[in-house]
What does this fold into?
Amino acid sequence: MRKNPEIKITETKLLSDNWYVLNKVTFDYQKNDGKTESHIREVYDRGNGAAILLYNTAKKTVVLTRQFRLPTYLNGNKTGMMIEVCAGLLDKDNAQQAVIRETEEETGYRLSKVQKVIETYMSPGSVTEILYLFVGEYDETMKVNEGGGLDAEQENIEVLEYTFDEAYAMIESGEISDAKTIMLLQHAKIKGLI
It folds into this structure.
């Protein structure tokens, strides 16, 4: 196993803070042979986030969301619409509080208990975000509103309910191509949650 490289940040230049923060970072990287190379990378910092797969064991269903995602539209998704698990930024909450808040805002379900599955870097080559993944059981008694997201955040979220088998098959058909959603559906399959 290679030893961990020595890293020294030599310059951080702000390129944009319009939506989140984009920095140009220059750093020295010491290789195993002792030589040091200078690298320049752009790094996008949007904070950390949390996502959750809502599942119902009695009905064998899952709740997912559907919304427009501009980056996918710009990169080959003809409609820009993505089917995903409920997710959002932590803001000032811890991951568990944030995922419970986002679940109610986006889906209308008020959860009191969730289970953390994993922490992951989704795009470590350019994005600083850690995404905390959860699962949580839901039933109709937990439905407190229609969901759909917050107008103040310009969210236009459709709430979907599928059987687990339908949702899982949507990975193979390509209807679900979001990494966090695929990971959580696979986790549910492997662990036999539904």
Q: What stands out?
A: The mean pLDDT is 95.
